[in-house]
From TrEMBL:
One Pfam family, short name: NTP_transf_3
Annotated TM spans: none
Domain MobA-like NTP transferase stretches: 29-142
Keywords carried by this UniProt record: Magnesium
Organism: Sphingobium cloacae
Protein name: 4-diphosphocytidyl-2C-methyl-D-erythritol synthase
InterPro entries: MobA-like_NTP_Trfase, Nucleotide-diphossugar_trans
A GO MF label: nucleotidyltransferase activity
Length: 262
C-alpha cells in the first residue's frame, strides 16, 4: 500500500457574528451543532482520518478547547492523526501562515466542518483528479444536484458548461498556490458573492461568465496560467458533495440522507 502523503486541513472556526444553527442548538460553535445526534464535525473528521491517502489532519480553529473539553468531540484531541492549530484572522491568512511552515509538506487538502456527507468515495475522486495540480477546487454541476435533490437550494455560478456550486474541498499542491490564496484573502468576505470573486480574477473572467463565453474548466485553467500554475476543476459526480450543513433545512436534508440504508 502507498504511504499516506496528504495533509488535510479541517476548518472548524467561529465567525465573528453569531451562527443561527449554533444559537438554535445552544452550542458555542457551529461545528458542535448536532446532526443526527452527533456533532457535525465528527463526520468529516472521521472521513479524513480514515482515508488511506491522508497522513494527518489539522483542525484549524480559534478555540481548540471547545472540542477537547466536550465529551462528544474529545476524541479529536486524542487521535494520533489529528493536531489542533489555532487560527488567526480569516481563513486565507491562517492558511498562508500554515503554508510558510517547513513542517507542513504538500499536498494540502482543505475542507470544512459542516461537510457532513464527506466520505471516502468523494475523497478518492477528488484526490485522484487533483493530484498533479498546484491548486484545485471541487464543484458540482446543477443537473447533478437537482437530479437527486430538486428542492435543494445552492449558490450557483453560471458558465457555458453549466451552473456550478462549490463542494467545499480544495487542493493546494505546491507553494505556487500562495498568490491565489493571497487574492482569496482580499475577497474572502465576499466568497458567497460569485460576481465579486470573478471580478478579482480580472475583467475577462467577469465578462466571459456574464456572456457565457467561458467554460468553468477553461476559466479555472486560464486563471492558473495567469498565476503561472496548474489550476484544475474537479467535477464531483455525487450530488451530496455540495450539500453542507449551512441552514436548518440543510441539516434536515442531511439527516434524511444519513438515515437511508447503506
Amino acid at each position: 500500500m502507498t504511504a499516506p502523503t496528504v495533509t488535510a486541513i479541517l476548518l472548524a472556526g467561529v465567525r465573528p457574528i453569531p451562527d443561527p444553527l449554533a444559537q438554535a442548538a445552544g452550542v458555542a460553535a457551529k461545528p458542535l451543532v448536532p446532526v443526527a445526534g452527533v456533532p457535525m464535525i465528527d463526520y468529516p473528521a472521521r472521513a479524513l482520518v480514515g482515508h488511506p491517502a491522508i497522513a494527518r489532519v489539522l483542525i484549524l480553529t480559534q478555540s481548540p478547547r471547545l472540542y477537547a473539553d466536550n465529551p462528544a468531540t474529545a476524541w479529536l484531541a486524542e487521535h494520533p492523526k489529528i493536531v489542533f492549530e489555532t487560527s488567526g484572522f480569516g481563513i486565507a491568512a491562517s492558511l498562508l501562515s500554515l503554508m510558510d511552515r517547513a513542517d507542513l509538506p504538500y499536498p494540502l487538502l482543505m475542507t470544512t466542518a459542516d461537510h457532513v456527507l464527506l466520505d471516502a468515495a468523494m475523497l478518492d475522486r477528488f484526490i485522484a483528479q487533483a493530484t498533479g495540480a498546484d491548486i484545485a477546487v471541487a464543484m458540482v454541476e446543477r443537473a447533478t444536484l437537482l437530479a437527486r435533490y430538486p428542492a435543494s437550494r445552492r449558490t450557483w455560478l453560471k458558465f457555458r458548461d453549466g451552473w456550478w456550486s462549490g463542494a467545499n474541498i480544495f487542493w493546494f499542491g505546491s507553494a505556487k498556490a500562495r498568490p491565489v490564496i493571497a487574492l482569496w484573502q482580499d475577497v474572502e468576505q465576499d466568497r458567497k458573492k460569485g460576481w465579486k470573486i470573478l471580478t478579482a480574477f480580472g475583467p475577462f473572467a467577469l465578462i466571459g461568465a456574464a456572456l457565457r463565453m467561458l467554460t468553468l474548466r477553461g476559466g479555472i485553467a486560464r486563471i492558473g496560467r495567469r498565476f503561472g500554475l496548474v489550476a484544475r476543476l474537479v467535477a464531483m459526480d455525487r450530488a451530496e458533495a455540495c450539500i453542507d450543513a449551512d441552514k436548518a433545512e440543510d441539516v434536515a436534508l442531511i439527516e434524511s440522507i444519513l438515515a437511508r440504508p447503506r
